[in-house]
Amino acid sequence: MVMSLDGSTVVQGNSRALSGDADRSILVGLRSLADVIVVGSSTVRIDDYGPPSRKDLRVGVVSRTGNLDLSTPLFTSGAGFLIIPEDAPEPSNPAVTCIRAGKGSVDFASAMNQLEGKFIQLEGGPGLNASMAQADLIDEINLTISPNIAANNEPRLLSEALPILNRFTLSHILEEEGFLFLRYTRNKN
């Protein structure tokens, strides 16, 4: 995730203005290690997600309704799949696979248990980040701090307050052109 100095993850509708070449390179590197990417449906729409460059990498799109344009290259390539509640309608494209978990909203613990692989790359947005944190499912945070102040009312890194406090340890830090790249790992004790 990338955020401004004042915590905004969005400027004028998306995160592109906050990002830079080095940030995008790190994202590509993380994706090369991931077993699966999980991202919210709003982020997919706003950032116009396409299929990943790695042919075997799948992208799980979280949605309460499954109401997405399934004719986009992300889904027609076979890379995209839906993560939806059990009671969500059937997808408009029967070729798109689904993980179903929870009633009315996604049960994230159940959904993540159904995914294959150990490295699940969570790519936001803020609502999904908050839901995954509330479900106690975040083990590592890779965060880019952009050298910009957004001074807006757009979403922050986590869009909702957390009922629990999880402690993380700074395990890696890099700086390039004013951007800070931070990796935090979860304290398990």
Would you write up a description of this structure?
The two termini are 25 Å apart. This protein folds into two domains: 1-33 and 126-189, Dihydrofolate Reductase, subunit A (3-Layer(aba) Sandwich), CATH 3.40.430; 35-118, Dihydrofolate Reductase, subunit A (3-Layer(aba) Sandwich), CATH 3.40.430.10. It has five helices and nine strands, in the order E-H-E-H-E-H-E-E-H-E-H-E-E-E. The protein has helices spanning 21-33, 41-46, 73-76, 108-114, 126-134, and strands at 2-3, 36-40, 58-62, 80-84, 98-100, 120-122, 140-145, 168-176, 179-186. The model has no long low-confidence stretch (mean pLDDT 91). By secondary structure, it is an alpha/beta fold. It has a five-stranded parallel β-sheet with strand order 5-4-3-2-6. Strands 1-7-9-8 form a four-stranded mixed β-sheet, with no helix packed on it.
Q: Largest sheet, described in full?
A: 5 strands, parallel
Tally of contiguous helical segments: 5
What is the C-alpha radius of gyration, as a whole number of Å?
16 Å
Topology pattern, helix = H, strand = E: EHEHEHEEHEHEEE
Structure summary, number of beta strands? 9
The percent of residues in helical segments reads: 10-25%
CATH class of the largest domain: Alpha Beta
Output the structural class.
alpha/beta
What's the SSE blueprint?
Elements: E1 2-3, H1 21-33, E2 36-40, H2 41-46, E3 58-62, H3 73-76, E4 80-84, E5 98-100, H4 108-114, E6 120-122, H5 126-134, E7 140-145, E8 168-176, E9 179-186
Parallel strand pairs: 1-7, 2-3, 2-6, 3-4, 4-5
Antiparallel strand pairs: 7-9, 8-9
InterPro entries: DHFR-like_dom_sf (IPR024072), RibDG_C (IPR002734), Riboflavin_Biosynth_HTPR (IPR050765)
Keywords: NADP, Oxidoreductase
Pathway: Cofactor biosynthesis; riboflavin biosynthesis
